[in-house]
Design a protein that fits this description.
2 domains; single chain; alpha+beta; 136 residues
Length: 136
C-alpha cells in the first residue's frame, strides 16, 4: 500500500508542478511559445504528458503492491519440499513449517540464519498445520 501511496503522491506532485508551469505559460502575453507551438497547443501537450506520467506511475505502484501481496500469500512447492505455512514474528524474523517427504519441519528464520525448531516424523493429526493455515 505504501508503494501505491508513494507513486500517487509523486504523480500528484508532478501534476501540480506541471499545472503551475502551464498556468504561467498561459498567462504570458506572447501567443506563440518556443518551437513554434501556440500556447494552447503547448498547454494540451503538457497536460497529456503529465496525465500519461501519472498513469504510468499509478500502474507501477499497483504492480508493486500486487506483487508484494501475491508473494506473501503464495505457496512455494518444488520437488520434495513444500512450504506448508509461515508466520512473521517481527520485521526480520519468521517461523516456517516445511513438509519434506512424510516429515514436517518447523524452521526459524532470522538475519543470523535458519534453525530447526522441531521435527514431526509422521503427523498423526492435521491439527498443527490447520492451526498454522488459519493465521493471516
Amino acid at each position: 500500500m505504501n508503494y501505491l501511496r508513494k507513486a500517487l503522491g509523486t504523480a500528484a506532485a508532478v501534476a501540480l508542478a506541471t499545472a503551475g508551469s502551464v498556468a504561467m505559460a498561459a498567462s504570458e502575453a506572447a501567443p506563440v511559445a518556443g518551437g513554434g507551438l501556440a500556447t494552447s497547443e503547448l498547454v494540451g501537450a503538457t497536460l497529456r504528458m503529465a496525465a500519461g506520467l501519472a498513469v504510468v506511475l499509478g500502474l507501477l505502484g499497483v504492480a508493486a503492491w500486487a506483487s508484494r501481496r501475491l508473494r506473501v500469500t503464495g505457496r512455494l512447492r518444488s520437488g520434495l519440499i513444500e512450504v506448508v505455512s509461515g508466520i512473521s514474528l517481527g520485521t526480520r524474523e519468521k517461523v516456517v513449517l516445511l513438509k519434506v517427504g512424510r516429515e514436517q519441519v518447523l524452521v526459524g528464520i532470522s538475519p543470523a540464519g535458519m534453525r530447526t525448531l522441531h521435527v514431526i516424523s509422521q503427523p498423526d493429526s492435521p491439527g498443527f498445520p490447520a492451526i498454522m493455515e488459519e493465521q493471516p
